[in-house]
Amino acid sequence: MIKKNIVVIGSGLTGLTSAHYFNKANADFIVLEKKDTYGGVIQTVTENGFVFENGPNTGVLGTVEIAELFEEVADECKLELADETSNKRYILKTGKWEAIPSGLIGGIKTPLFTLKDKFRLLLEPFRKKGTNPHETLAELVKRRMGQSFLDYAVDPFILGVYSGDPNYLVPKYALPKLYNLEQDYGSFIGGSIKKGFEKKDDQSKKVTRKVFSAEGGLSNLTKALFKSAGQENFIFNAGNIQISKVDKGYLVKYENNGQISEIQADKIITTTDSFELENLLPFIPKEKMAKITNLKYARVIEIVLGFENWEGIELDGFGGLIPFKENRDVLGFLFLSSFLKNKAPKNGALLTLFVGGTRKDYLNDLSDDEIKKLVEKETKDLMGIKEFNPKLFKIFRYKKAIPQYGVTSGERFDTVEEIEKTNKGLYIGGNHKDGIGMADRAKQGKTLAYNALQYISNSLD
Ligand SMILES: Cc1cc2nc3c(=O)[nH]c(=O)nc-3n(C[C@H](O)[C@H](O)[C@H](O)COP(=O)(O)OP(=O)(O)OC[C@H]3O[C@@H](n4cnc5c(N)ncnc54)[C@H](O)[C@@H]3O)c2cc1C
């Protein structure tokens, strides 16, 4: 049996970020990963001149922590920001792509929203703030902005980020920044304007809405973190991990190459999906664990298309999202080669599209052949190509892709906190709390490391 101060479970972006900070602090730690490699859902592939992702494609520099992570590994991995000249975002309305307006004139002219709702929007700053913390996103947006903003702005955005349903997601948990704009400033518009004028320190200036990837693909970020965390601090193919409480801390049992191994640890950090926790932490009472594992996930199919010669519509933007109301079988298209470098051969195009999500969950049951037919039809209809002849056609299925922060989230967050309080040295991370995006994961990974090391703020900087 070996002894370690800290055991981290999982080597996705969250676990890698914690490991990066542990190594920086010379901590005594080990990462156990059930798969044979690191990165979790972040996996970049190069094939036939295309560079594509199996999982997340781009993130938003929405936390200080993700910006600083890139700064800290800059020698090994270069941050790539989306090309600003291809920054249009499209929404499908009655079968036609409409650009999301940016300025006032565009906002007045756009056919995406009704005239009535455009006038209603002028009164948004004067509307009373909501009092129900469990109001759904759909209710909140209808109340403040109107049905057409829900249908043709928020709904497609939610399909793009959560593959989810605004009637299920609760903004207090799923979109806390938006929720707080209303709670703190009384208005989305007024709050955004006031926030824009607030003085920012150097750290908060790093938080932007800029879209990022890494040069050569997101795996270059996880590769750099793996290196900075120290490759010797990882054990892969660690199966059937079970943790029990012992006199002084925890005993971690796992299988590796047919052998059972044990680690005695003072502190445990889990970074897995919530549904893994029941097996990992059998000492947690079942009724408590159920409040964490009842978290609903969206099933999603991600399809990557690579064309050697693109002859469809002009790919002059970030991509197009498809509102549920349009009743199509695709959630949206990302025009990756138009805003990231070296994704496709010259004159070619790399597109990624998504199918399924919580509102069209049944599509996840289609066979690969059925998916191919569906994608061919939708791509011809919506992307203006006559011949469907992609050089690259990849299907990635995720049974539990994106957690849906609904009304039970408050209880889940409280339960995690309570379990951590009653089990000293246990830190339950992962995307069941603190946000779903890569920027959130980097923030949580760093916070977990700080908490486990009981460092006072910024002592690692
Ligand atoms: C299809 C898809 C598309 C996405 N798109 C975006 C996007 O465009 N932008 C964005 O910001 N975010 C996106 N996300 C979310 C983003 O990918 C995640 O927030 C982030 O990468 C998750 O990192 P993680 O480390 O928390 O989890 P994971 O990447 O899931 O890593 C968890 C790790 O733990 C390991 N593990 C699990 N159980 C055990 C166990 N019992 N024992 C040992 N190891 C275990 C897993 O093998 C894995 O390596 C997307 C997610 C998916 C699935």
Give a quick summary of the entry:
The chain is of the alpha/beta class and 461 residues long. The chain is built from 16 helices and 19 strands. The site of flavin-adenine dinucleotide has 36 residues, from helix 1, strand 14, strand 18 and helix 16.
What is the CATH fold-level name of the domain at 2-46 and 65-73 and 215-293 and 408-453?
A: FAD/NAD(P)-binding domain
Distinct ligands: flavin-adenine dinucleotide
Beta fraction: 15-25%
Secondary structure: helix percent: 25-40%
Mean pLDDT: 95
Low-confidence parts, pLDDT < 50 over ≥5 residues? 455-461
The major β-sheet equals: 7 strands, mixed
Helical/strand content category: alpha/beta
User: What's the architecture of the domain at 2-46 and 65-73 and 215-293 and 408-453 in CATH terms?
Assistant: 3-Layer(bba) Sandwich
Q: Can you identify the CATH class of the domain at 2-46 and 65-73 and 215-293 and 408-453?
A: Alpha Beta
Number of helices: 16
CATH superfamily of the domain at 2-46 and 65-73 and 215-293 and 408-453: FAD/NAD(P)-binding domain
**Terminal Cα span:** 34 Å
Radius of gyration: 23 Å
Per DSSP E runs of 2 or more residues, the count of β-strands stands at 19
Shape: globular
